[in-house]
Write a structure and sequence with these properties.
Layout: H1 7-30, E1 43-50, H2 51-68, E2 72-77, E3 83-86, H3 88-104, E4 111-118, E5 122-128, H4 162-172, E6 176-181, E7 187-194, H5 195-198, E8 207-210
Parallel strand pairs: 2-4
Antiparallel strand pairs: 1-3, 1-8, 4-5, 5-7, 6-7
Length: 214
């Protein structure tokens, strides 16, 4: 049964395509942020987001992308994540960059895991792949603009901007992004968001905040 016969599938694909268009638009806009550290800081539009539902929608889109690449995308998203304050378009971009890389660099027939959980102090969102991994000497540099890697394995395609943008977006939400990786053993990217800064206190109005200055 195709999307024309399955209303739920058609709705998911339409939502996913709209999100992807947003991500590409933001990618073009964010290029200006990477030119100089003294560029004007960007404005983020923060609003309440039901995190479990939002992350599940992201998974539904990317699982189809992974299937098209003969990769299985699995999810382990906690069902009771809180409502948070974030710029959903830009944070979608941060997560989308991680999922895109994980799927792109995973061999056919392998699995990628997209997970999210909450502890007492933070919310974690992680992407684990079974790709080629990253060399130890490259790890300290992978969030740098245009960095491609000494062995030219993980960063063959593109200009090396995705991880830099993901880092900037996460830091603008008062969080941090880390990576664990070994050659031949895949990579684990983890976003950590402090609960005291991100959990929505109940406000339903849109707020404007500025990204953290470099």
């Amino acid at each position: 049964m195709g999307a024309s016969q399955d209303e739920a599938l058609a709705r998911d694909l339409t939502t996913g395509m709209k999100n992807e268009i947003k991500r590409l638009e933001l990618l073009v806009g964010d290029l200006s942020l990477l030119r100089e550290k003294n560029d004007p800081i960007n404005v983020y539009v923060m609003k309440p987001i039901e995190l479990t539902s939002w992350l599940t929608d992201i998974f539904r889109y990317w699982v189809e992308i992974a299937r098209g690449k003969s990769v299985t995308l699995n999810q382990d998203i906690a069902p009771d994540l809180p409502t948070v304050q974030m710029d959903e378009n830009r944070f979608y971009q941060a997560i989308g960059n991680l999922l895109s890389n994980a799927i792109k660099y995973s061999p056919k027939g392998s699995d990628v895991l997209f997970s999210a959980a909450q502890t007492e102090h933070e919310i974690t969102i992680a992407v684990r792949d079974n790709g080629t991994g990253i060399c130890r000497e490259d790890l300290p540099h992978i969030f740098e603009s245009f960095y491609r890697g000494a062995e030219n394995k993980r960063f063959v395609q593109g200009m090396g901007l995705g991880l830099t943008i993901s880092k900037d977006v996460v830091e603008a939400h008062h969080g941090r992004i880390t990576v664990e990786s070994e050659p031949g053993k895949g990579s684990l990217f983890t976003i950590r968001l402090p609960i005291r800064s991100i959990v929505d206190p109940g406000a339903d109005s849109v707020r404007l905040i500025c990204a953290i200055e470099k």
